[in-house]
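Pasting two entries for a bug report.
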Amino acid sequence: MVTHAPLRIAFFGTPEFAVPTLAALLASRHIVVGVITQPDRPRGRGHHLTAGRAKAFAVRRGIPVLQPERLKDEGFLAAFRALDADLGVVAAYGRIITDVMLSTPRLGMINVHASLLPRWRGAAPVHRALLAGDRETGVTIMRVVRELDAGPMLAVERRAIGDEETSADVERALAEMGAALAADTVERLSQGPVPEEPQPDAGVTYADRITKADSPIFWWRSAHELRNQVRGLHPWPHASTTIGGHRLLILKTAVSDGPAPSSAVPGSVLEAEADSLVIAAGHGTLRILELRPEGRRTMTTREFLAGRKLAVGARME
């Protein structure tokens, strides 16, 4: 294979998901000329301004960083053009990239998206896949176009979702998978045009951003759906319920064998002793294995029940 000149790459990314792709590009023969990331945001109890993980990684590696508040700002656009990038690579940047920016690199921009497009376009593809009970996911490298996550696909890799995996587990694995796939795609682009497959019109779904409104458990749903909610909302904001006016974050569960008694009201406690905390769901029963009372530390069921009496028949809401 004839080796062409290395590409000058402008990288766009903000959270932890972006870091493996940035690291893979830095380890390649290509040149990362700048990192564009979101402005530092107040985080934590003290609301201190904190950089995203991609910026922190870039600073440690001595790469120029741009953090525009507005993508149409002329000062930013001038700085972006001055990078003289051949290609833009996007991994969880978190903003819609403008037409002017898309047309600046001579090879356009590609995106590392954590789903099997066209399923789960949008902000939270991993969380929504687990919430929906999907058994498979993957990574798609697509061309960035004006419409959200609708560009043609340059590469796809699939991965099963394990029964015990949370969103954090799957996202971590997809970040590594996407990094390798992105680096391979960049190398292919450096050698010449890469075939691009349009996304099918059928099967389009959207992954809305996760908010605290996703947290409350509705016990009339099936035990399997509730277990998917617990897995899908880890590590934030976690599935939650209340009992006796106290809010509980539910961190780990299992679906118990057998249906709940026909007389059991969804949300009612069926067992509450030793390691066993079993709650009636709309269909089936949910065994709580790990939880966190609001403002307290994470506890096993045994630790939680050792510190309080919980009567059979009590209601979680």
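Entry 2 (this is the one that rendered wrong in the viewer):
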Amino acid sequence: MSITDTTIADQVVVLQQQTAVRLPAEVRAVFGAEMAKLIAAGIPSDVAAPGTDLPDGDLLDAHGLPTTLAMARDGKPAVVVFYRGEWCPYCNLTLRAYQDKLIAELGDRGVTLIAVSPQKADGALSMQEKHELTFTVVSDPGNQIGGKLGILMTQNDDLRTAQAKLGANVAATNADGTDTLPMPTVVIVDAAGTIRWIDVHPNYTTRTEPGEILAALDRLGL
């Protein structure tokens, strides 16, 4: 079975099996505790609801030039994907799956795909080039849009220490120098800029499957 035949969930299982044997026990324990806390807390109560306007902000494109979501949408309906960063393996396999399974279908529907993260513009460019992504990838310095959507999470000291042991420094990759991150989220917005559907994942190892996005577009008539 090829990668394009598998679900994101299938790929996550393989990824976790491959990484589990390499992670120190104390790091696994910290990640496990953090995941349990996020799952228990669930979706934040103040997440933006369908029917409200999609917020915008002062963004940067993959080359560091100023842009906005409105500019990236260019008057079209859009699937807007919020991801953590180029350093996140779950984000990497998810965006690659969207490239493989969504781009052609979205193009036929006249729907654009936009990926948003708080990382620096060079991280967005790296993500785009590494996975040969043909859709728009932008940087949201300071999580302007994620904050207005109500999908942000903060990291504690234990998690920062565990990530450092793996050579990861989220604050160094984020454009604003903090380690605040968006929960993985997919938003469908219509041509008028209104949120029609939103899917938030407090558990960052789970993601919205391409089939779920297409099914939602069908229900919305987009």
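Dev reply: Rendering is fixed now. As a check, the viewer should reflect this: The longest strand covers residues 112-117.
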